[in-house]
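Teaching soon. Got one?

===
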Amino acid sequence: MPKSLPTSLLKIAILLFFGIQWCHGQDQYEREYRIRKSQFPVLQSDSIWDGPNLKRKRFYKEVDSLGTNYILKFKKDRLHYALSFDKDGTLKKTGFRVNEVDIPDETFLAMENHLSASFNKFSIKRIYQQYSIHDENDQSILTSTFQNLLLPSIIYKLVVIGKKDGIKNEYDFWFNAEGHLINKRIALPMNHDHILY
């Protein structure tokens, strides 16, 4: 009996270890790094760079469980834009920062109800209105973005600080134009190891 006890404990410890690893692996994490323009992919469409109104251009690399994206952030006409590209410089999605008042009331109420059901306490840090590339080409998606069109295909991304059962985390939530949840993930803080000035 004494000899089998350590073996049993070892088996339980191994099962517990792999169980924790499996549960931990189910979360989708992402991290965003600031990079130099020279590290950014060559863009497929030069029309993105056109226009003198693009201010405060910054370049980022976002790594998550689904792959790597490159993000160009800039300010234009008092709005903060973010354009996402793949490693080949192909435009994947576009968007800009909005406020609660910019979202239809029914849509925002549906999103808020979902967050209230998910957390004991939450605060919305940022909201983005996003457009994805599907049947449209780069130019039409850019036109929709810069004209702030409320299309049925738009997606709202909310960066939320949520607290449940005493645990506080930052999350990314994606909702469709009606306010129905599409996806969520835990957001890791930005890596400030290599801050570029």
About this structure: The beta strands are 29-35, 55-64, 67-76, 79-85, 91-98, 121-132, 155-164, 167-176, 181-187. Residues 86 and 168 are 32 Å apart (CA to CA).
